[in-house]
Design goal:
- By secondary structure, the chain is of the alpha+beta class.
- The chain folds into 2 domains: 106 residues, no CATH class; 150 residues.
- It is built from 11 helices and 6 strands.
- The strands form 2 sheets. It has a 3-stranded antiparallel β-sheet with strand order 1-6-2. Strands 3-4-5 form a 3-stranded antiparallel β-sheet, with helices on both faces.
- The longest helix has 23 residues.
């Protein structure tokens, strides 16, 4: 008698790969066992590809529905859904595309996927109360070692191409031609207090600050990290003030249900 976990493992393998290794456990009087397995396989592919399309609409718009489904099928074989939470499925698509040979003519696709996944995660992140300038000033004065926390929806992605412009252009009904060029940049993506997801290019200094806050370092240490190699202090101060006003940072105890 085979162990239950062996049967389940074989079935799940077939559901995600289209193979028929679990037919040995099926009713041998049924000659259509492989066909019955194919029903599960096809439904799994269709369902998970639809989930990917929901998280990556611009990517699908760029490559077309047919090629997007081909990408999805190959992605699912390598990265099957690991949990019942559909909001976590698809996180590795950007990394997958960077080495997916059929997508080689479009080297910026992994950038587009990174933008879209961060956008999707920002949209579904928990709510939190943004910190205001008065509270921030008081913390700086009263608690020099306080940690400035990021909104749960904050993400920053490093891009290799002018992919943000390509993504933004594909928000329009009439898409104009954009010439692809290598353009290393970091994009900050977050959800503001009005539940609007925003995107903004940021400087290397602000990225250092955000990374330090993400790691739980004190505000003083984060500012020290951001100041290394800083060329324009006034510009950085303005950039920092802007993201504070736009809800990138929060009161640590300000989470809402």
């Amino acid at each position: 008698m085979p162990a239950l976990h062996n049967i389940q493992a074989a079935f799940m393998h077939d559901v995600y790969t289209g193979e028929h290794t679990s037919t040995v456990y099926l009713n041998k009087s049924k000659s259509s066992s492989p066909e019955r397995l194919n029903i599960y396989y096809n439904n799994t592919l269709l369902g998970l590809t639809d989930i990917l399309a929901g998280a990556y609409p611009v990517l699908q718009k760029i490559v077309g529905e047919g090629f997007f489904r081909t990408i999805g099928y190959h992605y699912i074989e390598i990265h099957p859904q690991s949990t019942g939470n559909r909001h976590t499925f698809g996180a590795e698509l950007g990394a997958f595309l960077s080495s997916y040979q059929p997508a080689a003519p479009w080297p910026y696709l992994s950038d587009i996927a990174a933008i879209e996944w961060a956008y999707f995660q920002a949209a579904i992140a928990d709510n939190a109360l943004a910190i205001d300038f008065n509270s921030l000033t008081n913390l700086i004065s009263d608690q020099p070692d306080f940690v400035l926390s990021l909104h749960p929806g904050v993400h920053f992605v490093d891009l290799c191409f002018n992919s943000l412009e390509i993504w933004q252009e594909h928000q329009k009904n009439e898409i104009e031609t954009i010439i692809l060029c290598e353009n290393a940049q970091t994009v900050l993506i977050w959800r503001d207090q009005e539940d609007v997801v925003l995107l903004k290019k940021i400087s290397a200094s602000l990225k250092k600050l955000l990374a330090s806050c993400w790691e739980g370092k004190s505000f003083a240490e984060a500012m020290f990290q951001a100041g290394e190699g800083l060329q324009d202090l006034q510009q950085f101060q303005q950039e920092f003030a802007q993201v504070v006003s736009l809800g990138v940072f929060i009161n640590k105890d300000g989470y809402q249900c």
